[in-house]
Amino acid sequence: MLIFWMLGCTPVNSDADETGSGGVDTADSGDTADTGEPTGPADLEIGGVAEMTTGEGDVSVTVAKKGTYIVQLVSLATAQGREYPYGDAAAEAVMAEPEPAGDRPPRAPPRSGPPLSAVAEGDERAFTVYDGYDYVTVTAKAMAVTDAVVLWEDQTTPNGLGSLDQEVVDGVLASVEELVLPRERAIFGQESDVDGDGKIAILLSYTVNMYGAVAYVTQCDIGRTAGCGSSGNNGEIVYLGVPDPEGSYGTVNGITETVAHEFNHLIYGWHRFVAQDRETAEENIYITEGMSALAQDLTGYNNGNQYVWAAALDTTDYLGPTASTDFVSVNDFLRGEGYYDADRDGTLRGASYLYLRYLFEQAGGMHVESDGTQVDDGGMAFLHAWFDSPALGEETVADVTGLALEDTIMDWYTALVCTGLVETGDPRWSYQVREMDPVTGYEYGVDPYDTIHDWLTLTGPPIQKLSRADESIRAGGVEYIEVKLDEGEAFSLAIEPRAEARARIIRVE
Questions:
Q1: d(CA 74, CA 410)
Q2: Which one-letter DSSP state was computed for residue 445?
Q3: What is the pLDDT of residues 483-502, one digit of tens each?
């Protein structure tokens, strides 16, 4: 069962005390090259990026010019829940115990229902739904039937929020039918049609509110059997909570964005699992959560989704103590079948989106014409290849891109810190400029320094002063450390060998 909750680069401080002296050793390597082993001093202009030498227990570089630099320290260790010391703390290396995973949403029990074919407005049928405590059967009435959508409303479960305003219903149905469905089908692929009615169903039920979710889907409905045991309610169904008419989820755009997210789960489940006869296969849930966040973006509803990717930057003051790049790990959103972490849920969703958005752009992305037509520049083909790839999990990256996973991780982390902070001149190390959808009015893509809804100003990923660095890096994570180096100065940073470190240095001043 998949659930959906809606949920910067920090400007460099030029304090003179941040030199490469505290807690570091000297070294005599560096280079201006962006890949391979460094062969000499890194002679970088502002915006220059160079690989650092990786030794047995340290990373090092020599710079040719005086300036302010960011060290991008990455752990390529594949463990989940591990942290490794660096700097002074590396001298007393202690392996942390794996972090316990949070409670996952319950799996759906075996259940079935009649097909949804030939539904007329006013018809009623039973659905089995989850109310946060148990699976219950409710009776729902078809409140609206269009060429592409059936809107059902739960008649069994009382709620204090009432029914949706008819104007909102009409707006949502029009947006879903005219924008969301055709755009997602073009960008990601066609959904299943297990009941043969050619429509998707939206079930409006207060049981979803009782569950504590905004909306969800279960791929048991389309024939996936992992944790299900049956075909579920037999149809392409989005279970939608009753929106608070005074809240952001109660607007036409808010509900439409939610449906866009959930609909993508159905497309993903069909292409990745059922259509490839691997109904019992598992994958890290944050891959599909990140993909559904990308669907919100690419269908033109990148609104609430901005809070999701902001949670993977530096928004702890607004979105919670784990809403930071310091809590990101590629292992936790790419590796581990069924991995889930309640404490970092929003952050991992946001990080997965940011990584997948980066790969989409590196494949060429897309552009939008003045009439709202979306034109593939390589990104849509990339997504079709991903959805239909015979590989699963992290192996899909290499299968679809033809690149080594570790290289995409390094380049992504570089783009995450450079975008909006410094111009590198290399498209690998920056997100594309955001583009507005002329139909919906929302902007596609990522800006780590954007101001969301006129109140949440993003400041990119956190960059730590060397003297105040926390000296701990997650397996699969990144640390950005600001240092000031003089001409010809060598810099070395100790790191626990089991972190499998790789590092770059970026000149920012």
A1: 7
A2: S
A3: 999 999 999 999 999 999 99
Cα torsion 98, 104, 108, 109: sign: positive
8 A C-beta contact, residue 1 and residue 106: yes
Q: What is the DSSP letter of 107?
A: P
Q: Give CA–CA dist 437/303, Å, rounded.
A: 12
Domain boundaries, the chain: 101-281
The SS3 call for residue 90 is: helix
The dihedral of CA 355, 361, 364, 367: what is its sign? positive
- Percent of the chain with pLDDT strictly greater than 70: 86
- The whole-angstrom separation of Cα 257 and Cα 175 is 10
Position 471 pLDDT exceeds 80 = yes
Q: Give CA–CA dist 302/280, Å, rounded.
A: 32
The pLDDT tens digits for 329-369 are 999 999 999 899 999 999 999 999 999 999 999 999 999 99
Cβ atoms of residues 142 and 222 within 8 Å = no
**Which residue in 87, 57, 52, 55 sits closest to 505, CA to CA?**
52
Separation between Cα atoms, residue 194 and residue 225, nearest integer Å: 14
Q: What is the distance in angstroms between the CA of the first residue and the CA of the last residue of the chain?
A: 48
**pTM attached to this predicted model:** 0.89
DSSP conformation class of 308: H
Q: Give the span between the Cα atoms of 1 and 10, in whole angstroms.
A: 37
Q: Give 69-93 pLDDT, tens digit per residue.
A: 999 999 999 999 999 999 999 865 4
Pairing of strands 464-465, 478-485: parallel
Q: Give the C-alpha separation, 52 to 40, whole Å.
A: 10
Q: How many CB atoms lie within 10 A of CB 55?
A: 15
The Cα 147–Cα 177 span in angstroms is: 8
How far apart are alpha carbons 49 and 34 in whole angstroms? 6
